[in-house]
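Crash report, auto-generated. Payload:
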Amino acid sequence: MKDPATPPGDPNITCALPASRLEAFTVQGKRPHRAAAPRTPEELSQLLQTAQREHWAVVPFGSGSRQDLGNPPKRFDLALATTRLDRIPEYEPQDLVVRVESGCRLARLQELLAADRLCLPVVPSAYRQTTLGGMVAANASGPDRYGHGTLRDYLLGVGVIQADGTQTRFGSRVVKNVTGYDMCKLYAGSFGTLGVFYDFYFKLKPLPPMEKTVVGLFRKLPPVRRALSKLLRSPLVPTALELLDGNASRRLDRKLDWSGKIAGYALAVKFGDLEAAVNWQVKELKEIWSSCLDGDMLVSDAREQARLWDGLREDHFCMAEPPLESVKLKVGILPDQLVQWIEEMEKHLSGIEAPFFLRAHAGSGVIRVYCHLDPATAQAGRLAGLIERWRSLLNAVRGSVVIESGPATLKNRVDAWGYRYKDLKLMRQIKNRLDPREILNPGRFVV
Amino acid sequence: MAVETSEPGFPRTEVRKELVDLLDSDRVLDTPEELLVYECDGLTLHSRMPDFVVFPSSTREVLEIVRLARRHRVPFLARGAGTSLSGGTIAAEGGIVLELSGMNRILQIDLENRLAQVQPGVVNQHVTRAVEADEFYYAPDPSSQVASTIGGNVAENAGGPHTLKYGVTTNHVLALEAVLPDGEVYRLGTAAGDPVGFDLVGTFVGSEGTLGIATEATVRLLHSAPAVKTLLAVYDSVSEATQTVSGIIARGIVPAALEMIDKNTIQAIEAGVYSSGIPQDAAAVLLIEVDGLEAGIDQQLEEILEVVRSRQVREVRVARSADERKKLWAARKNAFGAYGRISPNYYTMDGVIPRSKLPEVLGRIESLGREYGLRMANVFHAGDGNLHPIILYDIAREDAKEKVMALAGAILRCCIDVGGTLSGEHGIGLEKREFMRLFFSEAELQVMGRLKRVFNPDNLANPQKIFPMRRGCGEMSSLSEDSRDRLSRFEGDPEFVRF
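Recovered output after restart:
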């Protein structure tokens, strides 16, 4: 559809966006030659047929909040904006199921669900902007992943346009299904390299009647280790379990204007359940932690609690101001090696001589490293070396170090994924079979 | 129905010799008497004898057998306890069955990371048994859990009553080691943080042995819930029971289990020695369980009771002890054994519908049974909308099998028509492959076929499973208009190939 007020876009495609809008679709420095915003799966299908014929490289584009992930696109001919595919065509609160189009923003969906005391319990960073399409592509998750998992656990069905424009659907609106291969699992986390999503069925959960948060404070790492181990061996069922190093907790404290409430290593634990269950767990946690804590804090005020978790979810507090360049790494390790790794990483990172912050989804074996590089120095090179070193150390447990965002000076030196295990061969073949002309997000993902 | 038997398309004598060289003759079965046990699984409507049954004891041996099969183009498939209900472990084209029940070691229990690393022949319940002293357990609990193995559970993505709250097998498998048809061992997934790349574990789980053989699984362990409450509600009308189910789900309560038992099942149970004392004239029974921490458990129970009492319920029993709880569950667990008392044969089906459609669909299934002149029973996971209609029949009667299959088809169509699917936990196997076009378009089957060929290009790994063999046009007349549309879109598709 053409907007008469602005100059038209590429006349060769339907629903083209004007050339003036192309800048907004820049991905890691690369600008597309054209952009389109289809309103229906059929229009999307038509665009992909054209792309296939013309051999255009296509980048599906939601809010763009996760486009820093991975390597820069090898080629970029067409940005496929999902912004107009933003309906919620089916919502069955009594079934705890919703069908939502890929361009719908998560925040909008949650507002609708909250009216019925329901939610999709996966809330990643960029909450306000992120679209469900982008979330599924990245298999996104947030701090609540300890209790609620990642988006793959809620994806019941997916409508996907294949690379050749064929419209397909896998899964359905039922909550349990073994009809054919579990394609939803293959598509979740495939970073737009196997097809373009137009809608999803999600399983929903009731909102917890009550939430409370305890923040445990520690001066040193060994007691953190003991505290984590005690918690993980207990029957307590936290929904979120986040660890911050001293740098990160100081930054967060400042961001929240808490004037020093959080300092040192901090373990933030959230419980969401019936009131009696929440209160018992708060009491129990303080008891099992009593021997390892330097101090603790109960964040029970709802507003304060929301600010804390919003702050933890959005990593803005860890990002750098120009001219420094932010790097964000995601490290996958076994949960019981977490503390030891943090200790090692602190040593290794201090050799780079750039400010850094560490935080972790402590029960899930995921550490995030934020490092602020000075482009005028050799810091990027040193960090690249460190990434390679960590990757080889993690080989034995099939761990990983992924560059979630970072400047070209880093990504030019080291692959964003660094995946070298034997099954990479299978992944390449899958990509090759489902997108033989390599038009979907070429070069960006593992394969 | 016996799958067509023909001369094997491979050098039998040579293959036998190589197998014996590899495993010794006591681990290679090939006489008809020995093979008879392996001609079918829990789905007795299909059968086909394999050419060989072999007993590997290590990944290395599985690998050598697969390489041998590949060299001589022999079809192969793995088998654990053989409890599959969709024909998953039937050697549809003969060949080699790898019996993995001997690979039954628990390799590692790691409570710090809440995981267990096990061989595929480990019995489901043995995982829990190994960690229950530390108050941990393995959550997926298929009814077959005392016999079925983790390898089989992974292949079929097994469910069970408690998967309503805790999820099915795929939600509990972190990593796999698998021997793929290319004759290589792969590790898929990881227990260390988020896996990178395509989710091959999620893709492999539930692939029914068509992508390869899992030789090791790393599964998640959960801390057992300190408190459990179980109740049984007896109804005079099916619709009051199903309305209660909808009411509980709509209220946003997630019970640990929410099972329904119908009238014919109650009568079968109560006629036997394992009577649970349920009134024989009851129309339906709901078995509801909540679990969690001691704090709050009574409130959970109260909320459930509130919904239960808001409908017309004849009687509610809440278990006051572990013994009483066991007794309430006995009714559910003994159901399948009990059918033998009221019918010479029975066929257990599996289909899923949106849970809000329960009242409507149960009514339709009942009238379908009448239409086909067959008795039906139903015992199922109501909270998931996962139906298990049981068709009671006598194989000695003329046309019995044809009638059963026709009724089964009509029931599946009914599930699809309300937005459901063909299977919630038993898989497609041989049983439902010809129904796949009710749910998938030709294009969708093609996409899955392409995925299959990445792993299994020569179609030697568990051939004939999942994908339809026929075009299915003969079924057109009995389809709903919607399903007919889906089919006709691909009529005459020149790209039609074998999957």
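Post-recovery validation: The two ends of chain B are 22 Å apart (CA to CA).
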